[in-house]
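Async update (no meeting this week)

Hi team, since we skipped the sync, here's where things stand on the single-chain job. The sequence we agreed to prioritize is pasted below, unchanged from the tracker. I ran it this morning and attached the output directly underneath so nobody has to dig for it. Comments welcome in thread, and please keep replies under the output.
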Amino acid sequence: MSVEVRGIWGRIDGWLAENAPRSEMPGPADAQSVRDLEARIGMRLPGEAGESLLVHNGSDIAQLIPPNYCLHGVAGIEKNVLQCELPLSGGRSFFAHCASGEDSDARGCEEWPHRKV
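Output:
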């Protein structure tokens, strides 16, 4: 795991301990769960996302800054990715639409690397 990801989570955990002591973040996902997730969704997670899961498997119900946002753990990522694989109007999935390059400005298209496992 990179020093950068570990350092960022250290600062977040420290801030939460000081400012929101009742907030409880989930423990880490194990490396095999992350590899299994990548196999099930058919693509690699961006590096920092996979590393982050090894520190905290999402944020569970703990809301982060900005308010009302949370980080998905392994199960949440899988659920959301599989929903993005459902056909949109026009018959293609969100990922297929983004990978086609026809609308690279579509919300979210620029954020996913589309690399197959």
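Quick observations from my side:
Confidence is low (pLDDT under 50) at residues 112-117.
Residues 3-111 form one domain.
Reply here if anything looks off.
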